[in-house]
Automatic annotation (TrEMBL), chain B:
<comment type="similarity">
    <text>Belongs to the BCKDHA family.</text>
</comment>
<dbReference type="InterPro" id="IPR050771">
    <property type="entry name" value="Alpha-ketoacid_DH_E1_comp"/>
</dbReference>
<dbReference type="GO" id="GO:0003863">
    <property type="term" value="F:branched-chain 2-oxo acid dehydrogenase activity"/>
</dbReference>
<feature type="domain" description="2-oxoisovalerate dehydrogenase E1 alpha subunit N-terminal">
    <location>
        <begin position="16"/>
        <end position="51"/>
    </location>
</feature>
<dbReference type="InterPro" id="IPR029061">
    <property type="entry name" value="THDP-binding"/>
</dbReference>
<dbReference type="InterPro" id="IPR001017">
    <property type="entry name" value="DH_E1"/>
</dbReference>
<dbReference type="GO" id="GO:0009083">
    <property type="term" value="P:branched-chain amino acid catabolic process"/>
</dbReference>
<feature type="domain" description="Dehydrogenase E1 component">
    <location>
        <begin position="92"/>
        <end position="386"/>
    </location>
</feature>
<keyword id="KW-0560">Oxidoreductase</keyword>
<dbReference type="InterPro" id="IPR022593">
    <property type="entry name" value="Oxoisoval_DH_suAlpha_N_dom"/>
</dbReference>
<dbReference type="Pfam" id="PF00676">
    <property type="entry name" value="E1_dh"/>
</dbReference>
<protein>
    <recommendedName>
        <fullName>2-oxoisovalerate dehydrogenase subunit alpha</fullName>
        <ecNumber>1.2.4.4</ecNumber>
    </recommendedName>
</protein>
<keyword id="KW-0786">Thiamine pyrophosphate</keyword>
<dbReference type="Pfam" id="PF12573">
    <property type="entry name" value="OxoDH_E1alpha_N"/>
</dbReference>
<comment type="function">
    <text>The branched-chain alpha-keto dehydrogenase complex catalyzes the overall conversion of alpha-keto acids to acyl-CoA and CO(2). It contains multiple copies of three enzymatic components: branched-chain alpha-keto acid decarboxylase (E1), lipoamide acyltransferase (E2) and lipoamide dehydrogenase (E3).</text>
</comment>
């Protein structure tokens, strides 16, 4: 692996970093192809694939019919041929028609064929809310995918991580779901929706190497070291949780999981054993969400170190609302209340 | 407010709405009469040039391409004019498939495996296709195309090892019997989920085209599973990108206990699905090996010359149950298989060779005997590697292999837990 520190870099937002990851990989590997609704000439509804078709041609970057089942099924077949497809599902909310191809095919192919056939595909999909997308453009379905044996689930929280993780996912020989937190495509978000938005140009992780580098899948990142409690978080909520901890002046250790499967259990375990408190924050609905898995793991491994019940801060078990979006969103108020509870006896 | 609605006082004159639920013609105990099934004479269907536009022969989606007539003669423009050697090779493969099926069905009944599926009556569909395709072409089969492997000369012992999930099973006991995967023979891993292989075949074909390859893909599904969304996604993608793929719909009339009417067969043909997608569609006598061969070769030529996909409906009949898990006597008339108007595919090809003076009953009987012996010998050899349920054929810890390329910690942990539990339990297999 090259040292990204010594490579030329530039300011990028998350879209540009994701675009750069695909550009770099298409340049390195002629078997990498990009497909999805509107990804070709137009460059994607979020512009993530802008310029790729004109650079690599229509047989490597192309629009598809509006059929998520077809997109993933075709990608599995291309993978069987020997290609390394990077299909885009325009919104994570639209991924459900592709579930059978993901669950029963892509995820199971290596196992059921004893390694004769594999599905080295990376499914990119914008997910999460906070953009007034209503219930069909805001969901966080990562818990559905972490429940499936045979797929990896990756969620970046910065442009730098997005590029490095996406390159690692594309190079990985197993199917990977790569959920992109669209609320923070253009800048980090502290959860205060009524304040002016930031952009990545002021954030250190907005400085992104222009060339190849990767961030190993399955490695979390301690984004804020601390002693008082551990906050497990990923995607948009990393920035919201960080802001709440800063504002509260609590010495929290904030861990950006980055990959949900495989999970970096060592980093989690070491931190919770150190702090004795664990808060889990995700935007997805609560019941059977990934937070439930995290909570169980922490309880199994760190029970005798815990000084307070684990706190889960999540979206509600409702569809993602439109007008009441910020009432659903597990923002500073909900995280703040959980913080008070978990720190009560500290 | 102006309205065109039926006035309330007239409503009593309308019959109430009624829901139509299809019902097959014959149920157990019914006398079977298939005279309502239209069977055009052999040799009648026209053969367009493979370069013709798909919309110029829409009639063929409603016709029936037949080559072998009732006298065992090969007639009409679709006659592929195969050499006697090729005809004999196809006959041999078809008879071998039937012998293999008989033996393995019995093995399941003897408790040597959990599951089996025969393709009796449908042997021509896969055997003739395998002969018409190039060996390098990629097949995405459903679970009833064992004929592809047999016709491609794949080892029966290897197939049986998979059926027995034994120590030599190339799939390491991970897959249900008959869900073969043989990359070397261009045979994609079979899924139990229906029609998922359709868009995958399109993707493979698109990749082949994008890479400037010469190989094409072929895929198979049943009449019932054309109802799956994957089928329609695949047709759309294949049409849009003119993918070099052959879609085979094996219309064997039955999807477990549901007759083809539940997939729409009362309203139109399955080949007619092609028309709506603007792709070439053919309806073929699936019990006529020469018709299947000719249609496949024709479709392959279209695919190889960048003229895109072809959908071939193979009109045939599932002569036995869906699998070892159902009894067809419970839902359809026992008279159906013998009354099927298109006969038995093996007998029809045999009669043709006899009519040509290239075969006779004695040779046929001798061949059947020889093939039965061959299958028996293969079975004997496969059973030296074990049968399902008798002993531990794969080391316990292999249960976790192949979920990912590299085993992550959570699987390693579960694996260690399982080994520890099994060791502590003292179960016999843990001591192996």
């Amino acid at each position: 692996m090259s040292d990204p520190e010594s490579e030329p870099s530039t300011r990028m937002n998350m879209i540009q970093a994701i675009n750069s990851a695909m550009d770099v990989m298409m340049g390195r590997d002629p078997d990498v192809i990009v497909m999805g609704e509107d990804v070709g000439y137009f460059g994607g509804v979020f512009r993530a694939t802008a310029g790729l078709q004109s650079k690599y041609g229509k047989t490597r970057v192309f629009d598809t019919p509006i059929s998520e089942c077809g997109i993933i099924g075709v990608a599995v077949g291309m993978g069987a041929y020997g290609l390394r497809p990077v299909p885009e599902i325009q919104f994570a909310d639209y991924i459900y028609p592709a579930l059978d191809q993901l669950v029963s095919e892509a995820a199971r192919l290596r196992y059921r064929s004893a390694g004769e056939f594999t599905a080295p595909i990376t499914v990119r999909s914008p997910f999460g809310g906070g953009i007034f997308g209503g219930q069909t453009h805001s969901q966080s379905p990562e818990g559905i995918f972490t429940h499936i044996s045979g797929v990896k689930t990756v969620i970046p929280s910065t442009p730098y991580d997005a590029k490095g993780l996406l390159i690692a996912a594309i190079e990985d020989n197993d199917p990977t779901i790569f959920f992109e937190p669209k609320r923070i495509y253009n800048g980090p978000f502290d959860g205060h929706w009524d304040k002016p938005t930031q952009n990545w140009s002021q954030h250190p992780a907005g400085e992104v190497p222009t060339g190849y580098y990767k961030i190993e899948l399955g490695k979390a990142k301690v984004v804020r070291p601390g002693e008082a409690l551990t906050v497990l978080v990923y995607g948009t909520m990393v920035h919201v949780a960080l802001a709440v901890m800063e504002e509260a002046g609590v010495d929290a250790e904030v861990i950006d999981l980055r990959t949900l499967v495989p999970l970096d259990i060592e980093t989690i375990e070491a931190s919770v054993k150190k702090t004795g408190r664990c808060m889990i924050v995700h935007e997805a609905t609560r019941t059977s969400g990934f937070g439930a898995e995290l909570s169980a793991l922490v309880q199994e491994r760190c029970f005798y170190h815990l000084e307070a019940p684990i706190e889960r801060v999540t979206g509600f078990d409702t569809p993602y609302p439109h007008s009441l979006e910020w009432a659903y969103f597990p923002g500073p108020v909900r995280i703040g209340e959980a913080l008070k509870k978990i720190m009560k006896d500290a | 407010m102006a309205t065109d609605r039926v006035p309330d006082h007239l409503k009593p004159n309308l019959a109430p709405l009624s829901l139509y639920v299809p019902e097959p013609k014959f149920r157990p105990g019914d006398a079977v009469d298939f005279t309502q099934v239209p069977i055009p004479p052999a040799g009648q269907a026209r053969r367009p040039d493979p370069a013709d536009a798909a919309d110029s022969f829409i009639d063929l989606a409603f016709d029936l391409v037949r080559v072998l007539d009732d006298e065992g003669q090969a007639v009409g423009p679709w006659n592929p004019r195969l050499s006697p050697d090729t005809l004999r090779a196809m006959l041999r493969s078809m008879a071998l498939v039937r012998a293999f099926d008989e033996r393995m069905f019995r093995a399941q009944r003897q408790g040597k495996t959990s599951f089996y599926m025969k393709c009796t009556g449908e042997e021509a569909v896969s055997v003739a296709a395998a002969h018409a395709l190039d060996y390098e072409d990629m097949c995405f089969p459903s679970y009833r195309q064992q004929g592809l492997l047999i016709a491609r000369g794949w080892s029966m012992v290897d197939m049986m090892n998979q059926i027995y999930s034994n120590t030599a099973d190339r799939l390491q006991g991970k897959q249900l019997p008959i869900m073969y995967s043989v990359k070397e023979a261009g045979f994609f891993s079979i899924s139990g989920n229906l029609t998922t292989q359709y868009p995958q075949a399109v993707g493979w074909a698109m990749a082949s085209a994008a890479k400037g390859d010469t190989r094409i893909a072929a895929t198979w599904c049943g009449d019932g599973s054309t109802a799956e969304g994957d089928f329609h996604s695949a047709c759309t993608f294949a049409s849009v990108y003119r993918a070099p793929v052959i879609f085979n719909v094996v219309n064997n009339q039955w999807a477990i206990s549901s007759f083809s009417g539940f997939a729409g067969a009362e309203s139109t043909t399955f080949a007619a699905r092609a028309v709506g997608y603007g792709i070439a569609g053919l309806r073929v006598d699936g019990n006529d090996a020469l018709a299947v061969y000719a249609a496949t070769l024709w479709a392959a030529e279209r695919a190889r010359t960048n003229q895109g996909p072809t959908l071939i409906e193979h009109f045939t009949y599932r002569a036995e149950g869906h699998s070892t898990s159902d009894d067809p006597g419970q839902y359809r008339s026992a008279g159906e298989p013998t009354a099927w108007p298109l006969g038995d595919p093996i007998k029809r090809l045999k009669d043709h060779l006899v009519a040509l003076g290239e075969w006779d009953d004695e040779r046929h009987a001798a061949q059947d005997k020889e093939l039965a012996e061959q299958v028996k010998a293969a079975q004997k050899q496969a059973e030296t590697n074990g049968v399902l349920g008798h002993g531990l054929h794969q080391p316990l810890d292999t249960l976790f292999d192949g979920v990912f390329e590299e085993m992550p910690w959570h699987l390693r942990e579960q694996q260690a837990q399982m080994i520890a539990e099994e060791t502590a339990s003292g179960r016999p297999w843990a001591r192996k």
